[in-house]
Amino acid sequence: MKGVKRTNVRWMMVVFLFIVTAINYGDRATIGIAGKSMSGELGFDAAAMGWVISSFSIAYVIGQLPGGWLLDRFGSKRVYFCSIFFWSIFTLLQGTIHFFIGAWALIMLFTFRFLMGLAEAPSFPGNSRITAAWFPAKERATAVSIFNSAQYFATVIFAPIMGWLTHEYGWQSVFFFMGGLGIFISFVTIIMVHNPKDHPWANKEEVEYIAEGGGLVDMDQKKEEGKEDQGPKLGYILQLIKNRMMLGIYLGQYCINVLTYFFITWFPIYLATERGLDIKSVGFLAAIPAVCGFVGGIAGGVFSDFLLRKTGSLSIARKTPIVFGMLFSMMMILCNYVDSITMIIFFMSLAFFGKGVGALGWAVMSDTAPKEISGLAGGLFNMFGNASSIISPIIIGYIVHVTGRFEWALVFVAAHAFLAAFSFLFIVGPIKRMEVKKNQFSNY
């Protein structure tokens, strides 16, 4: 009907995804805030805590393909709710390990962190799926950059709260607070997450606007009874990993995440050991590049959608920020040639800004994942990306151990930024939605 104003429920959805993602990263950070007090009280040494920290990443990677399959089989609403609810339960339960004695406390902490990682596995593929359903292509990168930027913002939001709770009420309170908050948000999912066509707050004009722009508004529509494709078959994985475009995207995301995990894990250690800063200074200075990454992330998404509106080309719109952002992030190598802390933070801030600009992998995934198996494709994408959370910190540690310094570690990280740019430029090819051959793997 002419003159009816289009609703904007899709932007409420992306704010909700931002909140969920911030809680997601806040839950991951609990062990970093509470770990010192916890290990002191329970007698865990550094090696034991290392296994506890790695347990999450191992489970998170293992859970990507099953999590993606569950999203495709049962839809975003149910799986997203279960994911948030159960990862929050396992977060909360970590606050109870002091009830166990000796080695059992360590075993239970490892188990709860592992189960939390499994439960979180569908979260980012779910974000990608919801974005693909709710946003036309010309707004998708902005939407993805908003919820993706929550990973930088989570530290600013939750670290002070968790630090205060630990000081005032003990380390257990951190897990109770974050777990309880997540359980509450999981029930908000029931109200917020719907197919665009079924959402009680979205009018027909908004749904048509999304659909005309390439949004998959009927992604979770119930399949007709008796239809052969009731869910993705495992053989679809072979189609995904044999597709040159998807392989290039997966390789690019692995390389981009090497930069992410360097800043999360090794950058504070670099400031403390290589540059001799005290812990208080490290905490303050390490936050500056994180803020720059947040700004870069929003800027990259807005710029990408601007390019799409101007050029009409997904390839130009997505690849340009990724390639230039990754090349810009290589400026971290300049830290090897300066001694001033100010200049080091300046170059690292520029590098993290570039990384933020180029972190459009989930937007590309929303643009390219086959409609029938978008969850599975996103799970495989996230599995490749988060494999770097296991591999790259170990390699960086080995480089620092052998050389005694961080120079070659910075070169290692910067080389991955270059490889990410190379992958999107020369391997990915034209960016378009992949079509699957539905009957090719009927026996799988």
Automatic annotation (TrEMBL):
Lipoprotein as UniProt keyword: no
Topology with respect to the bilayer: Multi-pass membrane protein
Top-level taxonomic group: Bacteria
Transmembrane segments: 9-26, 46-67, 79-97, 142-165, 171-193, 247-271, 283-308, 320-338, 344-364, 376-400, 406-428
GO cellular component: plasma membrane
Primary residence: membrane
Record localization: Cell membrane
GO MF annotation list: transmembrane transporter activity
Residue ranges annotated for the Major facilitator superfamily (MFS) profile domain, each copy included: 13-432
Keywords in alphabetical order: Cell membrane, Membrane, Transmembrane, Transmembrane helix, Transport
Family designation: Belongs to the major facilitator superfamily. Phthalate permease family.
PANTHER family named among the record's database cross-references: FI19708P1-RELATED (PTHR11662:SF399), SOLUTE CARRIER FAMILY 17 (PTHR11662)
Protein name listed in UniProt: MFS transporter
